[in-house]
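The methods section describes the discrete structure representation at length, but only in general terms. Since the whole study asks how a given chain folds, the encoding of that fold should be made plain. An entry of this sort, consisting of the sequence and the corresponding backbone structure tokens, reads as follows:

. . .
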Amino acid sequence: MTPSTPLATDPRPAFARATATACAVAAAVRPDQLDGPTPCSEYDVRTLLGHLVAVLRRVAAVGRGEHPFSVPQVTTDVPDDGWSAAARAAADDVLAVWADPALLGRELTLPFGTFPGAAALATYTAELTTHTWDVAVATGQDPEWDPQVLTVALAATHRALPADGRGPGVPFGPVVPVPEDAPPIDRLIAWQGRDPRWTP
């Protein structure tokens, strides 16, 4: 996978599968794990689940033509025993919004610019998958990562997130070196500044 890899013309199937994995991981988090650390050092598990739900809500809002910052960075209106239901409700909403194929060619406003819908959704596939990994590794889960999801996510993140220029104000750390034959999920999260060897 290189930065020149073409983006998927219709990333919706991959995004739907990424959403299913995110919901499964959220549902498996135990209440006693909510205060635990995560690879996002500023977030505990509870806050990271709030961000995961917020990502789903934001992708729906963007698809409806709303400003991305109309959705807060972290969802805080969910009780500790409600994360599974909140993720599922947000997933159902976003998939319903993006069922319209016209969105793929429409120019949409994201926090970091304006992009065609297909490119926007591919980029969100990468973000959603990375944060799903964050929650999974923080809570001792080992989900099965869908190869199609990772193909779309890797291509999108390489295009949207250059390796250089990750200084102050950029919410990604430096690329973490991994072997060329590392699993695709390791290559994805390493490109986004995570260490695949992270443990709680």
Summary: DSSP finds six helices and two strands in the chain. The helical segments are 12-27, 45-63, 83-97, 117-138, 147-160, 184-191. The first strand starts at residue 107 and ends at 110.
